[in-house]
Amino acid sequence: MVKNLIKNGHKLIVNDIVKSLTEPLIALGAEAKNSVAEVVKSQDIEIVITMLPASIHVKEVYLGKNGILKNVPKGICLIDSSTIDPQTTRDVAKKSVSQGNPMLDAPVSGGTSGAQFGTLTFMVGGDEKVFNKIKPIFSFMGKNIIYCGPSGNGQVAKVANNMLLGISMIGTAEAMSLGVSMGMDPKVLAQIINSSSGKCWSSEIYNPYPGVVANAPASKNYTGGFGTDLMIKDLSLATEAAKQVNQPATMAATALKLYKDLSAQGNGALDFSSIIKLINKKNS
Description:
With 284 residues, the protein is mainly alpha-helical.
């Protein structure tokens, strides 16, 4: 995402607690700072974009004593592209707006390839006027920029989407494993599914069976994708959100248990499509 912003002529000031991650960005022309406070105090700053693992990190980075809100000049727009619970987003945004900093929640979908090629989907919550002003910035990083409504609604959309993704991947893995175990060639089976009613993103773009899709993590030993532990985080957010609004999430809860089982076997860092390993193990 940073590379695509630089490629489109924007000057970037970056920070990450893992310093090695900023080194290739410096080589592309970005400037690195030692802390979040230093970043937001930089001269001529116009927009701050964050992407963090979980709600606890968002609270610390935005609300901490050395965080963004205590150091950023008034009027600077803040964008958080983390995937967290909607209530934390709304709480942080309320404090941000109250001190004169408009804030958007803008989680993304599309995986590492979407980030690389600038084809991400942005699900954006917040003031619509602010969204319309900032939308061109999103377009340098994404292909589908969708306004979802008030603050937190971007997170609602992301939680619902990833809940379905986690569930559909398990269904695809079960279908592929069943067909192959009964003698089908996996590529032929995938071709049939993807030209029939079973077609979905998990079967067509991100098929969990090795060798079916050349660029999918399954064909790279399940590396370089969306980690199983991250899917566990997202499904945990979904099931917790469902409890809060008294909405059934039976399939999400079942999927969450299966991904936790997969992680417990030492596969937490592997792409979530490696769930097919668990399915095949149960069937062996």
